[in-house]
Amino acid sequence: MLYDPERRWWPQAACRGHPPGEFFADGGGTPDKPPSADAQALWNEAKKICHGCPVMHQCRRDTLGEEYGVWGGYDQRERYLIRQTLPKAAKKWPPERRLAWGRALSVYRDRDPAVPWIEIRRLTGVSAGLAEELVTEWRAHLKAEGARRAKILSLPEPIPTRQGEPPFPEARGRLDAWVRHNGLVADGYYQGETADGLWLLMNVHSGKSRVRKWVRREDVKFHDPKPALIMEYEGRPDRARDEEPAA
Ligand code: SF4
């Protein structure tokens, strides 16, 4: 796993039950300055606990953005120095690693409202500038991938539904979204959308049937925000786009 924002390793942490003062010493100062000798001595003891911790690797991976104290065997100054080197190191990451980070970070940006870049830095340790760069790369990749996949799409034109009918349930469904389909509301998952965002490609699960179809955006209710995957293809539903739903 690249990164676990929920820190599911926490129940196995060796520091549970230790007084916080052992890991967050007074006199630690700010992360960009060396700590006092007393704080450093205390942190060195805390690091010994980390080095015997069964989840040190996962903790180190997920706490790079923590400002203060000892986490994952690193003190706050060590994490600060690692964060400083990250933009340069990221230039040498293989493309798949850059994309994986872009994808992970875009989840924060796709929330409504979007998580500020500076907050993303605090959560992940990835600087605002680098995070923006990686998310931009990921979105460009999605767009290119959508165009590539579009070549294999051959779907019937969508059938418009009556506006606002039937209403969506309040409860969440099993998949990504509720979809109006054949006069009913069914579970569906998102596969992409047209560049203008008016039509969504959804895989609709209704009873035992599974159908991939284009539906108007207003006929879809997502349970969580989705990053857009742009689909461009021959035979897109332009002709139907301006038609009003059948009364
Ligand atoms: S590595 Fe250290 S800070 Fe992280 S969970 Fe283990 S003991 Fe706690």
Features:
alpha+beta; 7 helices; binds iron/sulfur cluster; 35% helix; single chain; 3 domains; SH3 type barrels; 247 residues
Low-confidence stretches are 235-247
CATH hierarchy, class of the largest domain: Mainly Beta
Shape descriptor: elongated
Bound molecules: iron/sulfur cluster
Q: What pattern of helices and strands is seen along the backbone?
A: HHHHHHEEEEEH
Radius of gyration, whole Å: 24 Å
Outline the secondary-structure elements.
Blueprint: H1 37-51, H2 56-62, H3 76-90, H4 95-109, H5 117-124, H6 128-150, E1 177-181, E2 184-193, E3 199-206, E4 209-216, E5 220-222, H7 238-241
Antiparallel strand pairs: 1-2, 1-5, 2-3, 3-4
Iron/sulfur cluster binds next to α1 and α2.
Structure description:
By secondary structure, the chain is α+β, with helices and mostly antiparallel strands. It has 3 domains: 10-87, no CATH class; 93-150; 154-247, SH3 type barrels (Roll), CATH 2.30.30. 35% of the residues lie in helices and 14% in strands. The protein has 7 helices and 5 strands. The protein has helices spanning 37-51, 56-62, 76-90, 95-109, 117-124, 128-150, 238-241; strands spanning 177-181, 184-193, 199-206, 209-216, 220-222. A hairpin with a 2-residue loop joins strand 1 (177-181) and strand 2 (184-193). It is elongated and about 70 Å long. The termini are far apart. Mean pLDDT is 85; it is low at 235-247.
